[in-house]
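Re: the 1525-residue chain
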Amino acid sequence: MNKTNLPLKQGMYDPAYEHDACGMGFIVDINGNESYQLVADALDLLENMEHRGAHGADEKTGDGAGIMVQIPHAFFSRECDVLGIRLPKKGDYGVGMLFAHKYEDLRQEQMKMVEEIVVAEGQKVLGWREVPIDSSEIGVTAKSAMPRFIQIFVGKGDAGMSELEFERKLFSIRKVAEKKIVPMSERRGGSFYFPSFSSKTIVYKGMLTAEQLRNFYLDLTDLDFTSGLAMVHSRFSTNTFPSWERAHPNRYLIHNGEINTIRGNVNWMRARQGSMQEHLFESKDKFYPVIDESGSDSSQFDNNLEFLYLSGLSLPEAIMMMVPEPWEKNPSMSKSKKDFYAFNNFLMEPWDGPAAMGFSDGDIVGAVLDRNGLRPARYYVTKDGRVILSSEVGVVDVRPEDVSYKGRLEPGKMLLIDTKQKRIIADEEIKEIVAAKQPYGELVDRHLTTLAALPAGNEVVPENAEPLLLQQKAFGYTFEDIQSLIKPMAVSAVDSVGAMGIDSPLAVLSDRAQMLYLYFKQLFAQVTNPPIDGIREEIVTSDTMLIGNCGNLLEPDQEGTHAIYLDSPILTDEQLAKIKALDSEDLKTVTLSLLYRVEEDAQGMEKALERLFREANKAISNGANILLLSDRGVNKEWAAIPALLAVSGLHHHLIREETRTNVGIVLESGEPREVHHFCALVGYGCNAINPYLTFATIRGLAEEDLLEGVDAEKAQANYIYAAVHGMSKVLTKMGISTMRSYHGAQIFEALGISSEVVDKYFTGTPTRIEGIGMAEIAMENKMRHESAYETTAPYSETLEVGGHFQYSALGEEHLYNPSTIYRLQQAVRLGDYDQYKEFSNEINDDKNAYTLRQLLQLKPNAQDAIPIEEVESAASIVKRFKTGAMSYGSISIEAHETLAIAMNRLGGKSNSGEGGEDPRRFQLDENGDSRNSAIKQVASGRFGVTSHYLVNAEEIQIKMAQGAKPGEGGQLPGPKVYPEIAKTRGSIAGVGLISPPPHHDIYSIEDLKELIFDLKNANRDARINVKLVAEAGVGTIAAGVAKAKADTILISGYDGGTGAAARTSIRNTGLPWELGLAEAHQTLVLNQLRDRVRVETDGKLLTGRDVAIACMLGAEEFGFATTPLVAIGCIMMRVCHLNTCPVGIATQDETLRKNFKGKPEYVVNFMMFVAEEMREIMAKLGFRNIDEMVGRSDKLRMKENVKHWKAKTVDLSSVLYQPYAAPNVGRHCTTKQDHELEKTLDMRRLLRMVKPAIDSQKRIVAKSAIHNVDRVVGTIIGSEVSKKYGAEGLPEDTIQLTFVGSAGQSFGAFVPKGMTLTLEGDANDYIGKGLSGGKIIVRIPNEATFSPEENIIVGNVGFYGATSGKAYINGIAGERFCVRNSGVDTVVEGIGDHGCEYMTGGTVLIIGKTGRNFAAGMSGGVAYILDFDEVNLNKEMVSATKDLNEAETDTIKRMLQEHMIYTGSPKAQRILANWDEMQGQFTKIISNDYKFILDNIEKANGLGLTGDEAMRYAFDERYKPVATH
């Protein structure tokens, strides 16, 4: 695929990081009737999703829009007759839609070459047609890249060819043309691309907005242009370099989502090409590579889908292989389907990620949803025989009386319409048909076995094993590794937790020998796809792996293909012994040594790697299908190649040899011991790992009785559980569900490794600052080896301390150490700038480099220097300063309010964090101080996020990720949810609170765009800030966020983070802010979007120099979190998560809080000192104000003559790169975003209508039409109510608004008390989001004839984060209904999967079926469900009972009566009519902790206590013994 409009890789920008999302849909006539009306309706559908697409700096250039239809035979016959082309009957010719070069000479050459290829392939060239267009309305950017649009008509060379054979031949013509013509065209600056080439379908698409497509291609307005089906797509690209080619539809597919495992999928597909028999395809050279790696993830998926389809699979079968539903943990799935999935999992790994996909071959059209249901897809079936599926409902006008059924795609499910059979085929039927095509159970038995079925092997106890201590030292073990990582895993079965981020040097900057794993940083999901919760949503995850020869895609039952099924990638010594002993025709293991002579250094290591590759090739040719890499045998002379280097090097070698799928790679190593180590090994191709030295270490600890009474066997099992569980968290934070998909997916960035090493051994991994080569890798290995075997080495009798996480005098260096902490605290307490400069000088000491910025130096020019008096004042500069997001709950109220007071005095901003805020703080103190946090954070938990909270913000921050643990959620356990915290968060004291890993209303970039719009509606005066964490590709994400209309973008560094997080995440996830900030700034400038947004950064900013460098790399606002805490007393004990902070900051313990001695003045002093130091630097560089300084990286340079043996290999030239931009392109924020609030229904009509109610509480009743484009209806009105009346709102039903039609997203979001919104029709996703006391009613129109209790009426994620109010839904809701509900009472007639997830309060009455995984993470509130099937219940935190008391049945009856009155629900009427019989059929679901607290409140009431006193009593009864420790 040409990337005709993408800039070349430059600086930190790389076009490979582009992401996209979209609105998609299709319309099909079930009976196959073709009409122009269907095409016109499909274009209406597309245009009504315009808000899901995007455009960049050029408002008239869209990110892409397109349509796929059946070949319009009558239309083409008419057009071709005019051109003198005689077309044969339909199906006997194909049409190639071609994007050709715009200039005549090259285009004619391209056309001639295509004709020659058609003839060479034995087919007939019938003629060419130029596609008529009208380009008058498209943007300048689109025009500049616009190709010429021509169509070629190709007739069958053999009239007897079948339809599939002819499609295969057209595929052949296209592939050959691409191989021959694309390179020639690119050399000459031209483009060449076939959007489609088929006898059945054709695609019209381009770099257009949804509204431009219809009038751009004139064919689409011709009434003879008919089709019986149409698929449409509107694209939202994260940058403004979308291309004509990258628009959808693809050749078979439309896709709203992201393939998170794409790098691995492509590698595996390339690897298996060598083993695929081409009996259907004439020659490998012609058809391979299967996947065009220059395309987007969607087009690469389409390439693979096309290949499988043309190889003889049906489209549904191919989709089932590539996007399997979660099958391993589904007890209700049939054996035949499980066998199908098990066998196809053997053949090919899942293409994993959030996705709604439509697909068609021209006869069938279908759709499938990812296994976790992370994209919306709703559909209508109409009485006239059409199916309309789309990302939203209401996109095509259909009268209520014409609707037969309203449905939704469910997680992992498929919808199929076959126009030849003239019917809809349900998911279960499709899949059972596919599963019955082959005897899959027999194939599983023939090709797969389990570890348990293998005979026992010989005991693995090497005769000459070195003493345990020597082995540990040779493999780099430290005291910290054992005490802080291995021991907690062995004792408690959990990955260990740390706090306060990390301030030790990057691996490439450390003087000490670092494990190679530490040079790789985990990537994670943010914005363009969500992380998932592998704990609460475990039903969709899988830890299983396979080792062996994984088959031939084109000949599945091929002889000699066998594999072993593993429960997880971690093997015990006994399991490894079984594998090591294999030597049969089916399964044969060959052991390959990883040892090399240590004195041979890098040369010896490289020779050993080459030997390893040769021996692997030989073993494979001799029939081995398991290669066991072993580093046993290390001694004084022999060291082991770093395991990650060996595994990844061999993996990529075998991919290049196209033999990788013929073997499994098993590692027997003393090196891996942490979760991150295992993740890196699996991510770079290792199938299974035996960490034998870790197990030996655990046995040693047990023998010394150091495992708190846990025996060795249990400790090893605990360790394996913790390791696998930790791995699952790592892969799910990238949005990946299965270990099989994560395997080989390379979800990492190298930080501090040379491109030479990466290209050879870690191919395809980003490495942007260069770094160590083989010489340094060998040197670090040698240093570890010498610490074990050189008698003169320090600590020869003990392990080294380590000290990566916690400062130790003998351990790793830290930025925060006793000296720097003392100097800073003295400076701020005394107000002594000279003392501060001593602190600053120690941090900025040239002798040490802990961070990348310390490798940079200023480039002052004496001629540019100005007097400091001419520089912007410190009082002005500090207005750009902010304190980090630290919630009340994570820190004490005293600390939280101290920060707020200080920042308000300065005119800067403090951040509430995600724990809400007590409304009393919105009022000024008597002395004029304000405790109000100017920034109100909206995080995934939505704690305390109400309309009143939002209107009291100057800035609203959407936390997409957190520096210390991006891609993860959080948890405040019950003992820490003190009554005061619970009140602020809108929850119950003593009940644990969970923040989900994702925002459940942000599964994609267009979802973020919607939340930004929602929040802007909730407070029109506030800036909307989106917090990202630095990682490879954050620049293109930032560009997407700018296009989504954020006002501020925060790029957070990996090293920040004041809260608790797994140590795996603290050290190994994300990147330094220097890289993320530079990439974001450069990409925004390239996109001409930089002037639309403010860019902020944070992450261990300590000094004015740090801030100055951040500014010159592109930031104009700056955040501080750790250092302000140090200023008010923090001494970096790093026990924040234990509630034992000795200085009263990170604790809620009343006794410890008395130790808090911080004052606002200390924070004020610190901020002013930083600003003064910054002014000194500005004066030297000649900058009069901050705006002049933003992005001026030309005033920085790499330090010269760096002596450090590793640091000198780093190259920061890409960080300092200045992208070219025209003089009129802004490099700092000068333009306000246009949020288009004036287009909302509230602003167009409603606000004027309800003015009397807001002004004087007069009752208002009104009725209005509504459409899907009317989003966030009622929210602006609600914000005006909250501004005037506070949290109390208006009297109930003061404002009563009724709407008729299909409501857009976020209907009734944040609506406060006093507002009642009634909808006659249906609603899209996020109805009632953040409901703040209002009432929402949804009922079917009177004209509708369908049964509401059987139809989908509202979309996914209803009432997310709702805090109070009522809702009545006359129909079924989608997935994740009432997720994080903390106070709404609602009635609904059925829901999808993951209902009431993370719920903490409120009452949910469900009078219909629930989906799977109900009540996952539910810690509060109550659900009552009619005829509940407990197989759908997640029992981790809740109990189910039918034993209801009279008060509970009265509550159910009252809610049903209200539901019947408000909605006219027939089902409610039937239940109430038979109440005596029905009341016993309800099941109550309640959290165990919540029940305990309620019981104790009742007990307190019996003692005469009420309100807060009763709550305190209940909390103390439950947790006092725990909370005081």
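The chain has a mean pLDDT of 94.
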